[in-house]
Amino acid sequence: MNYSNRELKGNTMIVITGANGQLGQLIVTELLKTTPAAAIVAAVRDPAKAANLAALGVQVRKADYTDPSSLDAAFAGAEKVLLISSSEIGQRLAQHRNVIEAARRANVGLLAYTSVLHADSSPLALAGEHRDTEALLRASGLRYSILRNGWYVENYTAGLAGALGYGVLLGSAQDGRISAATRSDYAAAAVAVLNSAEPEPLYELAGDRSFSLPELAAELSRQAGKDVPYKDLPEAEYKAALLGAGLPEWLASLLSDSDAGVAKGALEDNSATLSRLIGRATTPLSEAVRSALAK
Fold first, then answer.
1. pTM of the entire predicted model
2. Are 201 and 146 contacting, i.e. CB atoms less than 8 angstroms apart?
3. Is 218 inside a domain boundary?
4. CB neighbours of 241 closer than 8 A, spacing ≥ 6?
5. Residue 258 is assigned to a structural domain of this protein
6. How many domains does the chain have?
7. Does residue 110 form part of some domain?
């Protein structure tokens, strides 16, 4: 099939990289509400593992961040590309550079990128690769839109069952506030940007109402009908607890470092940019907790 034309039967071709990840799948599903399936490309490392996306009618193409030739093939005919940041911490800058260079070769009309909240000033260890990727985008000559996503509320609600079992919610964030939103909220924002005729070059995206981990513990206790207090630990002790719970080293390091960053205000934002972009309020903490407990 020839994808050399920018328009596919009158519809702009949009490529979503990392489309079989948790965020990517939500973005594809949300995009289908406004865009014909044939005009959506789900770019994934292993197409054999994307049967659920193929079943939606979207095009599935191989796109390995470490294989420039696969990126060239995946971006053929694309007008817009969403680069969902790689999960391979420490290798992401080189991988993102490959994507940006492939987008330049394809002469895409817009390259959007999922960064992290306040990347330019964030104390989070993971922010460094995002800052460097943003610099590459600015120097690329491409039209770009940076989506600085705040924390996923699922980063915390995924562990609520364990907190209930142990009778305590552990963390290292002190009373720091977290302006988290759900992956679905961020997916809606990504689609809004991809559908925009004039997207802004930068968005700071976060939940409407911030919360602290003591407040999360209180909400969990209320809904579960069981007292689950919050226990704040030094960063090293919290990391050790996460490792003891079976988390891999990289994830335990990321979560403990991020909690320490929360204590410094790294994940708080009161701009309400996200809700304005998606045209609705972001998902309340109470609803996110209810959904997590229902699972």
1. 0.94
2. yes
3. yes
4. 170, 233
5. yes
6. 2
7. yes
Q: Supply the pLDDT for residue 4.
A: 34
* pLDDT-based confidence at residue 257 (cuts at 50, 70, 90): very high
Q: For 83-122, what is each residue's pLDDT tens digit?
A: 999 999 989 999 999 999 999 999 999 999 999 999 999 9
What is the domain extent for residue 258? 150-181+204-269+280-290
- CATH number of the domain to which 218 belongs: 3.90.25.10
Task: Kindly report, residue by residue over 134-176, the tens digit of the pLDDT.
Answer: 999 999 999 999 999 999 999 999 999 999 999 999 999 999 9
**CA–CA separation, 180 vs 163, rounded Å?**
19
